[in-house]
Amino acid sequence: MAKHKRSYRLPYDQDALFSGSEINRGRPIKFKLENRIIHGYVGDTILSALLASGIDSVGLHDGQPVALSENFCPPVLIQPRKGQEQCVLPMDRTPALDGLEMTLYGLSKNTPKPVRPKIYNTFSGLWKKTNPSLDFEIEEQSLPYGPWLDMAEQESFDFDLVVVGGGIAGMSAALTGAKNGIKVALVEKQSVLGGDAMFFGAIEGEKRPEDFVRELVAELKNSPLVETFMLSEALSADQDGVRVHKISVAQGAISSKIIKLVAAHTVLATGVIEKLPLFCGNRLPGVIGAKSAFHMAAKFGIWRGETVALNTVSSAASQTLLLAADMGVKVINLTDARPNPKSRFIEFAKAYGISLATGTLIMSAVQENDQSLTVQLGLSSDNSKPTGEKIILDQLVVNGGWHPNLQLWHGAGGKLMWSGNTQQLCAEGEVFGLILAGSCNGERHMSECKLSGEQVVLSMLGSQDNKGKIALNIANYESEDGTLPVSNLNLEHSNCYLDMNTSLMRPLPKLQTNFWKQLLVLQKKDPEILQGGNHGTCLGDVVAKVILGEISPKIAGVFAAERCGYLGALTLQDKDVQPQSPSSLTPQLPPPFLMGRFGSLAQVIKISLQGMQHVEVGCLIYADHENFLPDAAIGVVVGANSSEKQIVFAYLDKNYCAKNSHFVLKNGTQSVPATPDF
Amino acid sequence: MTNSNIENFDVGIVGASLASALLAGLLARDHKQKTCLFLNQTAQHQLSREIGLSFNCAMRPETWTMQNLALAETLPIITKIGGANAVKKTSGLLMCHNEATADALSHMYHYLHAIDYEIERLAQNEYPHCAAAYGIDNLRLIRPSVFWPALINWLNVVGVTVFDWQGLQIGTKKRQSIRVNLTQQKVEVGQLVLADEAAILALGEQTETGSLFEKKNYCTVITQPLEKTTETLILNPEHAFCARVRPDGAFEILCEGDFTQLERQFSNNIMANGVLSEKKVHLTGRAIFPSIRTVDGAPFAGKLGRSNIWGSAGFGQMSVFFAPMIARLICSKSTPDEANYFAVRGNNKKRNSVQIFDGCAMENERI
């Protein structure tokens, strides 16, 4: 049973990987967000400080809380103070500084706070319980886009090569470029280099990942031709270079700017993204991807609560659980959706005495009043039936496999192709000036990624020095990653999401052909609205849609081309808004759509109205008062002379153009007698 | 491949739209034709290239007569196939910016007023940036997210064979049949129908379309959801602008031109008229696609040349509602009124000799 009060920071152990390498526990800081005081350490990001303070929910979506995470967090508006200018920044990349004051960007002042019983307000001060939510009304306004996405470029720098991604492949590519005498920019989103090497670990015969990373970082430091841009997110890439949002901290103040790194060649070494297993409650606070859980623990020492379970289809994810166990976290169980997985981590888990179940997936997760999770397990072989086993825990770590992070490639017009074997959208063809390297190009291990980074740059430089692919003999022991676990989704519980990103896209309900069921189901959940929130679809959503059979694999690339990534905005263009005067009512030749309507010999003539009348173009003219059906019309008003308001121009059947003709003009409900005016 | 491996059909329909799929089904069900559909299967999952609506800006009374008949006949068919949720009742705002279009709409308004259509002229001071604005009630909007899957199921029930049109080539044209080559298959059809703009664009060069059509680029976008609202449509015949405001506040917009043109039209039609208070709306989907339109703005339905290849285009938002009439036209079972209507809307001399301009997007568009 999970305890009511839980801790969010792991104890410090200098030898442990989950020690919080980025934070200095000897230097506490505090800052204000929406007038709440948040405590953290030097080295925390705003997001990590919030998570460490027990704030792990963004707000409610369809009545269910959605987890605050590095993939889903609102931007913050940093308030001005001495030396600090007002700016809007992403929570996950912005260092937390002592004394900062900030609000949530885009949170309406009128947003109603959640209604809590009076008794809560009366006694909440006594037990000092932290409100675990940012109370962002996701349902009403969703998360706002960061304004930096549309900001103009403030500076531009020229390089020979830009490398996006500071993992093994990216660092190798940058170093290879520098060794060959070209000027390289290395762009890394995080505050440290190394990417996911530590998470995936080494295979037999490889150096330890920490040694791998340390050596490459040391080489980079000694390479004057490589300039590294940390805390910098590449927003887009094209044949001219890369557009980057860079955050800087100087003299106790944070700032950001958009820079353009101009280069003829760009290497994208953007790594892989974790797939989210599909079950109801898969984005509740406390449910976290294995890679996110690893990085939060390794960099910031953050872990939610004291009990954990893991469900995975990838061997690498299991390491996170073992490292947590090393830090004293109680492991409830390790479940693997693959029927008979082989992994050294599974052997380690057995040695740790961790309860292990294979062929098992998560059916659902429900948040309890004390923020703990009740998780229902099921069998992979029959995803419609729960096993009956329920577990209660503080944190559920999940992993549904991987897909290459090709967002920049795709944004640059790169084609995507569905790979059925790996359930991934992979790059197809070429984009002028862009080269893929490392795990986003299908490489799997550190040695492969290093070689890939080197080779793409050598190939770009026209070198013949091709060392070929490294042959790694690992298939005998480590099982391949499994397919994405999908529980038999009960869509009445709509809190199952396709991916961990900002789109909040959910599975489509099954079509009801029965009339009464339609009324019951579809009226409640409009399929169009279920398709997404206010952000563009992400590649992870497309992957899940293909797996669920919502879209055909053949058209996954087409679907992604129109909907994925940041697609820009429509803005009010004042200069285009021109007030137009209404029709001048001057006679023209009859418009083409009137040709032949009142006989082939119809003419435009002046007609005189009996009495001063305002008539509109289009008023129909009839022979008499008897029949006002439009088929009986003999003509129509085509213009009026503004100086003689009783005179209008009509396009009239020739038979009624004689001097002594009389007819009736129908002006709305009024009937106005008229005659030709010669 | 021997002739015995070639599958034969009475009619083959090529298309990417709801109208083409419905046409195939109706030919099979109501006219007992052995029918196959060469469907662009990506269409269902792309951003909308069409908005199925019971309203078209049409300037000719005979087109309005046909539109009303088409609506009355097709609406029950759609709800029978897709259920009550396949069609939604909604209202619309029709506006324009230039004087010539305002005059055209005024003609249309007075005609519609005379036949008791639910349209009202809106006060100029409420829409100061417009040359004219009208409110239309009781519109019927097809919901593709509901109707597409139901239509595909129904095609199966009525016995239509569906092929993916990828790689489709028109092969030998004989007097009685047309060979259609697919990537891995050959099919022979008695009559081939290019049932929408996408089909004519893709295969028109292999037929005798002459100078009937002109190629245009169109842009389609979806915006982020804003405040929840009542579903409505905003139409401007200039630049074929059509915006649908979804209940979640997201806009689905179709417009002639490129993205810059769409953005300008969005400013003029939506933001400037106070339909939306925001100054900036983010997109969640965008695409530019080529299409065709008839040069004279009138609908086209008829044979494209001397062979048994038919075409259908230019019915605008109401194309799906015309499917039963087109089916009768192909099977030579048109009513006398339909026969008269389509006689001057085919690829023949009558079309050129009689001015049948239906569109109201003026040549001298200024915005």
General description of the model:
- The complex is a heterodimer of chains A (678) and B (367).
- Chain A has 678 residues and is of the alpha/beta class.
- Chain A is built from 15 helices and 35 strands.
- In chain A, the strands form nine sheets. Chain A has a six-stranded antiparallel beta barrel. Chain A has a five-stranded mixed sheet with strand order 2-1-7-5-6. A five-stranded parallel sheet of chain A has the order 11-10-9-15-28, covered by helices on one side.
- Chain A starts with 23 loop residues before the first strand and ends with a strand.
- Chain B has helices at residues 18-29, 61-82, 99-114, 144-157, 197-203, 259-271, 323-330, 336-343, 349-353; strands spanning 7-15, 35-39, 87-96, 119-121, 132-142, 161-164, 169-173, 178-181, 186-194, 213-223, 232-236, 241-245, 251-256, 280-294, 300-303, 309-313.
- In chain B, helix 1 packs parallel to helix 4 and helix 1 (18-29) packs across helix 7.
- Chain B is an alpha/beta fold.
- Chain B is globular, with a radius of gyration of 20 Å.
- Chain B has nine helices and 16 strands.
- In chain B, strands 1, 2, 6, 7, 8, 9, 15 and 16 form an eight-stranded mixed sheet that branches. Chain B has an eight-stranded mixed sheet with strand order 4-5-3-11-12-13-10-14, sandwiched between helices.
- In chain B, a hairpin with a 4-residue loop joins strand 7 and strand 8 (178-181).
- Chains A and B meet through helix 12, helix 13, helix 15 and strand 29 of A and helix 3, helix 4, strand 10, helix 6 and strand 14 of B.
